[in-house]
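Incident review: delayed structure delivery

Summary: a single-chain prediction request sat in the queue longer than the usual turnaround. Root cause was a stuck worker, restarted by the on-call engineer. No data loss occurred. The affected request and its eventual output are reproduced below so the record is complete for anyone auditing the incident later.

Affected input:
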Amino acid sequence: MSTLTSPHDLLAAIPFLIGYHPSDSLVLVSLKADSVGMAMRVDLPVEVAVESYDLLASHFIREEADGAFLVAYVPDGFMAGETVLINASAALMRAGIEIKESLIVQHERFRSMLCTDEICCPPDGSPIPAIDSSRIAAEHVIAGHPMPYACVDDLIGSIAALPSAQEKAWLNEVNAFWIASDTEEINELQRDGATAVIDLAGEYQAGRGSEDRELTARVIGRMSDIQVRDFALGSHSDETSDFYWKMWRELLLVAPRGYVAPIASVFAAIAFERGEGALAHKALDRALADDEKYSLAILLRRVFTAGWPPQSLRKMRTELHPKVVAGIFG
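Output delivered after worker restart:
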């Protein structure tokens, strides 16, 4: 993302950074040498302990940030917006992070906590600019990024199961490719699953998507095996990320109940690497709703909430991939 030079830029950028237009939220954006880094969104805190604000600041320390933008999206009737921003700013400053801007958004207007010039920063705030007319939006659209969702419910809906996911005939097709952990031919089935993942990705790369119904069912069914899932987790690269992203997202929409967790977990990982943190967490919600004890989803949740940078996750899975390939293909 280009440099943010004004409150208008910041307000236009945040929906792109988190994937949707926030409400009832505290958003913190890290800066390193004036370049935008991670964006964190938390529910607007009420009576939060000082230690909790320090925990938010620790993520900025881990990222080696030197500056921060803060925005509180305050609902009508909420009176502690300024207190939230003051507490968050204090925690960041204790960590050596400079506060570049601190904004309150309420009643469709915004005002700065740092600006004291009533000419450019009137006490009753300024109207929120339209995002679709901003420089930031134009740059994202030109770069091929979609416009952010209107709200978090729309974000969740974008990865919700389609009605066809529970059709009995479709479930039977997917069940035919389920891998039992005690089967004598497990290695052969794992090879079939890994090959199916690569073949289906090739279909997406060629622009055909999931037209091959049997191949799609094979991938979803074979992902029931942990080795196939781990192979899938490490299969994409920076160059192939776009069509793998599309593939896993579309498979998540049609995966039957009982087959969602591995698909959702792999999609969450690739979403996190692409900077789609909110979408990654919502994908994990789907994984854990399908299987509350699914180990990869639990591990990824810990990774995401611990503030790991995306490159660390990328490094972990790429180092694991050759070992998984060797285990499957010998």
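Verification: The longest helix spans residues 186-205.
Action items: add queue-age alerting; document worker restart procedure.
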